Amino acid sequence: MFERFTKDARAVVKGAVAHRESTETGTVEAEHLLLALLDRGEGRGAFALAELGLSGRAGSVTRALDEARRRAGLSQADTDALAGLGIDVAEIVSRVEEAHGVGAMSGKREDRGRWSGGGSFGRDAKDVLERSLRIAVARRDRHIGDEHILLALASRPGVAAEVLADHGVTYDTVTRVLDGGGEVEAG
């Protein structure tokens, strides 16, 4: 599949691996792909993020992703659903961190050497990359670009899509920007 990726899309994947290494997690996740997209200054995905006002807000996105990582990757929607069942995720995180240290639920690993190298891709990152292929095919694009990765991130449920939506970036707004649908307001 990677032979169909453009130079920009390959750079996003490589950047995601670098983010995985910097966060000391075992696998590349969708959030790493999002962070790598935000790092890019070129490509159609970077253009769409800039048009939607997200390019200067990487710190806000990073904080939101860090908070979700601290909750063991639970999205705010997941946290709200559990609260409806009487489960206080913030209390659970607090108790786990009290017993095991801050960030204990974040996926950081002490035995990092075991995970060194390229790292594997987690289920959600694989899903994003597979969706990017399906989106490219549906749009009749010959190659998979970074814009397809962005569309895939925005189209699937989870932390990355939730953080994007909280910043005014949705599948529909990205599509309008990419298709030249005029002015698009973002949050």
Automatic annotation (TrEMBL):
UniProt-listed Pfam families: Clp_N
Domain of life: Bacteria
InterPro entries assigned to the protein according to its UniProt record, in alphabetical order: Clp_N_dom_sf (IPR036628), Clp_R_N (IPR004176)
Domain Clp R span(s) in chain numbering: 2-187
Keywords: Repeat
Spans traversing the lipid bilayer: none
Name recorded for this polypeptide: Peptidase
Organism: Streptomyces cadmiisoli
